[in-house]
Design goal:
The protein is α+β, with helices and mostly antiparallel strands. It folds into two domains: 2-137, eRF1 domain 1 (Translation, Eukaryotic Peptide Chain Release Factor Subunit 1, Chain A, 2-Layer Sandwich); 140-177, no CATH class. The chain contains four helices and seven strands. The strands form two sheets. Strands 3-2-1-4 form a four-stranded antiparallel sheet, sandwiched between helices. Strand 2 (90-100) and strand 3 (103-111) form a beta hairpin. The protein is elongated, with a radius of gyration of 27 Å.
């Protein structure tokens, strides 16, 4: 029972993180998303981010170059705190977020206890954070079988999350035993 409660708490924390991350916007491609699955080595990811920092030196805009470099360096320093990605993996969202009046501030969010393991490695610089893998974890994967039976019809299908899939719709050609309206029997 405690495992189920812990899983619900993880899902709740993830839901709050997704809400916060989806509201954040950057100027240009200044927001960096790094998702490390459990089977990827932290050393390899740090090396990849080092190469990306070298590529960021080629950005023409000085402010964008500085913001992207700051974000990548912050992601590397965050990764330095971990020896392994753990059983679920690590997601790091870092970058200069717009706070108003053409001003930005560096923000960092780390998800290191996801309800499910991250399926693949992801590195992306954009004006929004890449949260599709996080949103996938919140989808309810339980399925229910549905049977709907009416007088001359029947249908069965599956309901999973917000999706409803009708497998088959059957109609009966057996005639009804009753006539339409009126009393049955002799008239008085």
């Amino acid at each position: 029972m405690s495992d189920d409660l812990e899983q619900q708490q993880r899902r709740l924390r993830l839901k709050k993180a997704i809400k916060d991350l989806s509201a954040m916007k950057g100027m240009g491609t200044e927001l960096v998303t790094v998702i490390v699955p459990p089977d990827r080595m932290i050393h390899d990811v740090r090396q990849h981010l080092g190469q990306e920092a070298g590529q960021a030196a080629n950005i023409k805009s000085k402010s964008t170059k500085k913001h992207v470099t700051d974000a990548i360096e912050s992601a590397i320093s965050t990764l330095n705190r971990y020896k392994t990605p753990g059983t679920g993996g690590i997601a790091i969202f870092v970058g200069h977020v717009i706070v108003g009046n053409n001003k930005t501030r560096l923000t960092s969010t780390v998800v290191d206890d996801p309800p499910e393991p991250f399926p693949s490695f992801r590195y992306r610089c954009d004006s929004t954070f890449e949260i599709s893998q996080l949103e996938e974890m919140l989808i309810d994967r339980t399925s229910y079988g549905l049977f709907v039976i009416d007088r001359s019809e029947a249908a069965y299908g599956l309901a999973s999350g917000k999706r409803l899939h009708c497998q088959e719709h059957i109609t009966s050609l057996v005639p009804s035993k009753h006539g339409r309206g009126g009393a049955i029997g002799p008239e008085v």
